[in-house]
Write a structure and sequence with these properties.
Organism: Capitella teleta (Polychaete worm)
Protein name: Globin domain-containing protein
Helix content: 55-70%
Structural class: mainly alpha
CATH superfamily: Globins
CATH topology: Globin-like
Number of helices: 6
Family: Belongs to the globin family.
Keywords: Heme, Iron, Metal-binding, Oxygen transport, Transport
Distance between the termini: 21 Å
GO molecular function, one term: metal ion binding
Strand content: under 5%
Number of domains: 1
Shape: globular
CATH architecture: Orthogonal Bundle
Length: 143
Amino acid sequence: MFETNRQVKEAFEKFRSMDTPSELWQSSVLETHGMVVMNAIDEIICNFDDRETVVELIIEQGRSHVRFGDLTEDLFWSIEEAFLHAVKETLDKNYPQHLQVIYKKAIRFIINLLVIGFKSAMREANKGYCVPEGPLFGNHGAP
């Protein structure tokens, strides 16, 4: 994600100075960030049976990202491909089609709520700044 999307890399101050893929992959900062993100996703998935808690967790996580002024909705959606790739690599041969569909729906649900939280916080932080509202999955299509 940081290698293939320059906009993602530029949004994270700690990664801007890393010019080569090897610098990124050897970075303890990237490893720590990845663990934080995966732990958050794990907590969300483990609580899927408690809809209110999950929605609150995800929206609050999206709201918390407003402090990183360079983020956009598209940057949140760039998580989808990287997450699905990581799941596929981790599960390897134990990743049948029905699990691919489940994980795709789950990450889209999560990202959609992250974006809702982020947009809400942006509207509050930038009174008068118009954040467009879109359909449930934005321009990213239904699963």
